Amino acid sequence: MHGRLLLTLILLTLILPLSSMTVWPAESTSQTTASLCVIDPRLEMSLSEFDESSRKPTSAILQFAAELSPAQIARAERNGICFVRRAGEVVHVGRVYSVRLMDKSALDTAGSLGLVHASSGDKQFFPSLLSSVPATEAPTVWSSLKVSGVPLRGTGSRVAVIDTGAAWLHPAFWRVTTEAVDVIQSGGRFYADLNGNAVTDTGEGPIRHIDVSDYGVINTLNEYLFIDTGDDGQFDYAEGDRWLAGVDSDSNGIITLPGEDVVVLGEPKIAALYDQMTSSVYLRGTNLTSLALSVGDTKGHGTHVASTVAGGQIGYTSMLGMAPDADLIIIRSSLTSAEILDAISFAVSQGADVINMSFSSFIGFLDGTDIEDIAINEAFRTWGVLSTLAAGNLGGTSKHARFSVPQESEESAVLSVSSPPSGSFLNILWNSEDSDEAIRLVSPSDEIVDLGSFASHHGVAFEVNTDDLKAYVFPSTSVRGTNRLVVQVVTGSHLWKSGSWDVVVSNPSGKPVVVDMYAWDTYWSGTNMRFSTKVDNEHTVSSPATADLGIAVGSCDDGGSSISSSSGRGPRIDGVFKPTVAAPGQGITAANTSLSKLWQSLSGTSMASPHVAGLLALLGQALNGSPGWRGLSALFQGAGRNGVHYSPPVSDWGYGAINALGSARLLVPLATHGGISDWAGVDTVHQDPLDPSLPSSLDIRAIRFYPTVSSLSVAVSLTDIADFSGTNELRIDWDTDSNSTTGQSGVDLRLTLTGGVMEVLRWSGSAFEPAPLGSGFWNSSTSVFVWVEKTADMFGNLSVSTRAPGYSPADTTPVLEVEDVWRPLIGVVTVTPLTEAIFVSAEVVDTDSSSQSLSIGWSVVDGAMAVLESGMTTGSRNSSFSVTRRVSTHGQRSVLFNVTDGDDYLYIPPVFLLATSTAVRITDASLDSDTIVVGPFVSTSITGRVVVEGYEWVSSVTVAIRSNNSYWLNFTLTGTEGVYPFKISSAGFAEGQYTVFAVVVTAEGESIVEAFGILTVVRDNTVLFLIGLGVVGVIVIFSVRTRLASKTTSEAIK
């Protein structure tokens, strides 16, 4: 009886569960950086593959929440982070630092220092004048506009060129340092009489020039002379050879020796030369001498770009850059991420006002958050340094595909592959709320390469190894919520089978998603990887031109009438307008690296971008410093040639083709007592042909208006010398309110100039009477200029007439409209974080609009550019508001501005509200094992962790497990500094498959739900079977023993 009771208890124990479901706190583990920042999977893979034997550190770029103090840098270095230094100074741009790492553990300390993002420093970028510069109207700026009496030619501005270097000995990079020097002829040769003694001395010749047999005649269009001290026919700086330019005294375009003089080009325009290949820095006036002869440009790209910015000497050659008097800072680079950051840092340290970067990459997020993009933003927001950036040459190359994937559906694009070289990649980008989209590739032989659900990877790189594809896969998510999955062939063993591949994206749930795909085979015009379906020519602007505050430059023809077919088009993948402007980029002739052939012709957005850099150097001079927000918005608002200015910007031109005169005129006030050339950039509102029947001093030929908030200036050009000092009269009748029922036939104000006296009269109702308004006039050659004080809202219409005895009137213009002609500019934008809110302000500058006519609109947007809140300020030049320091569940927040004066609009690109993310997102969620075993006496637990960025704003984190029949089990987690480990008892889980979700709820009640794993539960009854066997054995033994005992008893009785 007791034996049977024991067996019953054993069987009940096997049938009933041991306990109800329980969540146990996971054992505490050492905190990893993944809990504190986003680590680029490419960097993570590089660190995991670190070869201890080689001891070669990994290049990385770290973005922190704020600039580090010396103590924090020292602390990080004690823990294994090696900060890159140049001349003893740590290389950084604001919060972004260049470092070297030996292993991932070194980042643990960096997490406690406010590390936001860790990225690879090895991402590779690719380098992406005779008629082009005049087409921008830059020569008119040089000759007509002045600031403090100095012509606007770039004087005082510094432009950095990060590129393949520059042939710094090229004559285009040298300045005139002497007055005109006589040329002496001796023995059929020519010498420069440098000391003025009329004798041919050592070091004065003979004079030669490049690749021209006639040594006595050169063309000022594109040729230079040089003193050949070694008399070997070659320019040799180390021997004392120096460049010369000819003085074309008879302006025939030809220098004839010895009849015309020369000048010495004795000072380099290059203020600093940084060779990253050798970590050498050469400074003008110090060691930029024969010591730097080995530093040049083997590619030729950087030399061409630099000369487009600031090449040549005005008055001595036609081969001129946009800002010939600007200084250059040349950085010779191999263009990896780490070197680009170092170059930006160097440029800032050398006082750069503008940085040009004519290179591109498509391996990033392309939403303005790549680490290079952030560094560009930092340079502008911290130091006011603007960057001009080539938009890339992906237009018309079939290297971009775009399509929408509806909910519970899938879409695909066909990628044509033909023996792609190492480094080729496919970059897939999209923005979604749940990140459960899955990617698979179908090869030409129908092999399916399943890359799985994006959420299941959570930024962990992995390798694909199939018959048709062997490659690395890098998944990651930007701070704006853009998901990125890069498939790249990197090593020698990698392969991508040639043929047509289907790239399939499935969207099992949530909202529809828009997918952008980019194929790159290391060449702009390469055909190794191209799309044959879903091809999209827009959204092809490259990084770093995608930077929020960077100037993305497209390429157009010289005339500004057609955009280049290869030029990258916008908008950015998140809808932000790009490119910013377009500039000449077709067949641009500029400096060559060879001194035996001084010029070469190149095309592309790489050639367009330096035109804009040079223009910004002119605008910087106009503002007596860096261009800043006013220079940036003047570039926008002045763009447009042939009368075409786009507002809002369009996807191929941005605001339009650059117009140096239009942009500079917005910043340079009208000079008083100047001539008509000082009115360059002011539109002519009326032109009239010669009238032979009138006295030439009364014949009106052209009228121009220059309105400001407080005055109106009028330029009247005549056929002959303007003279109103006697009986001749100039009269201006002004209908200030455009109302014909007021004044005398609408005329409210009359200005008269006669007998050398200016008079302002106002209609009193019965007569014109003197008005207490300031006024003045001056004459210059055939033009007379008058000005009169006005109120801000006075525009209306006016007519101009000339009068004299016997001519009443002599000449009269039609009624001309006085318009608001100057577009509004942004003076400054500030974003100031406070304890509970973020204070944002913007100031508008408008030459001729009153405050009452201005409106400043603003919007706060999330990472997907969806508007979270907005507002508008009217009747003021300033707008300020506070934004609550709330959390976003969909990417970091930014602020956008748009400004109007009622006629023209200005759109300002996104500005991040905070340096650190205010977004809550799941940066990692994983199961330690996707299979668990349940059964009698089996105690396998479900373990893993969820990592949350922005955990400070989280109210709860939950793991939710859903069975196939949609039964949910929820488990609330606890964690430390964003790491939420879990250990869940498997008791009670039936055999089958379960979907595992991470659920994060913010303090404001918003939820993020992300599926991150499929859990397979397997039932193991082995123990039960063994116990069953044991029970059966016990029963058998017990039965046998009973029978034996019974038999023995029976025999005993017998």
User: What is the highest CATH level, the class of the largest domain?
Assistant: Alpha Beta
Spans where pLDDT lies below 50 across 5 or more residues: 4-36
Main β sheet profile: 8 strands, mixed
- Indicate how many domains the architecture comprises: 7
Individual helix count = 13
Choose one word for the global shape.
globular
Q: Give the distance, in angstroms, between the N- and C-terminal Cα atoms.
A: 27 Å
Overall pLDDT confidence: 88
- Rounded Rg: 37 Å
Q: Structural class per helix/strand content? A: mainly beta
Total beta-strand segments: 72
CATH architecture label name of the largest domain = 3-Layer(aba) Sandwich
**What is the CATH superfamily of the largest domain?**
Peptidase S8/S53 domain
Strand content: 35-45%
Looking at the structure, the CATH topology of the largest domain is Rossmann fold
How does this model look, in words?
It contains 13 helices and 72 strands. By secondary structure, it is mainly beta. The chain has seven domains: about 40-120, Alpha-Beta Plaits, CATH 3.30.70; about 125-170 and about 270-390 and about 550-670, Rossmann fold (3-Layer(aba) Sandwich); about 180-260, no CATH class; about 395-535, Jelly Rolls; about 690-770 and about 790-810, no CATH class; about 825-900, Immunoglobulin-like (Sandwich), CATH 2.60.40; about 920-1020, Immunoglobulins (Immunoglobulin-like, Sandwich). The strands form 17 sheets. The chain has an eight-stranded mixed beta sheet with strand order 24-23-25-13-26-28-41-42, with helices on both faces. Strands 29, 31, 34, 35, 36, 37 and 39 form a seven-stranded antiparallel beta sheet that branches. α7 (about 300-310) packs parallel to α10, α8 (about 335-350) packs parallel to α9 (about 370-385) and α10 crosses α11. The model is unreliable at about 5-35 (pLDDT under 50).
